[in-house]
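tool_call: predict_structure(chain=1)
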Amino acid sequence: MPVCMVPGNHDRRDTLKAVFADWPSIVADPEFVQCAVDDFPVRLIGLDTLTPGSGGGALCEKRLAFLERALAADKVKPVVIFMHHAPFLTGIRHMDEIGLTEGAGRLAELVRQHGKVERILLGHYHRAIDTLFAGTLATVAPGVAHQVAFDLDPAHEGGLVFEPPAIRLHLYMPEHGIVSHTVYVERFRGPFPFVLDPAYPGKH
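tool_result:
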């Protein structure tokens, strides 16, 4: 299965580049861990938002220039941008303080100018969160281990909860575009068949 990777706030670029030295998407950029992939009907652009030694992230001028070049290379295909830190506030204060602290405004300009960015996929928050950003849907994936506690009280420092782990799966269909699913990865009872309703023969 093809895999593309960008670093999270707990990762180290030098370690990723050393361990995954044979992955084109890891070593494509000499300085950062980011890539542009044109092998599919949807263009994938991965951005490195890592700020070493900080929980927060950034898109500096070099990384934004990479994005600008990647977007300019094809203005026909739909685009998905994926990166770790969210360029918007969520209301979870202690996480917003370590969100994307640099480059969000220029990111929004580039996304609007291109006009074909279908999704911006994000991590970091360990919660499923969606919002409109620069005219497109920005979606945060939940965690596959713990979740960040849902707490909008700015006076609280936050915590972790062991809600069911989940992933986001984004399905591209040419006639409909991208449809996004939240998929829980624990085992649950079922699936159970639908009960035949005698009032509607043939319907389940």
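agent: The chain has one domain: 13-184. Proceeding to next step.
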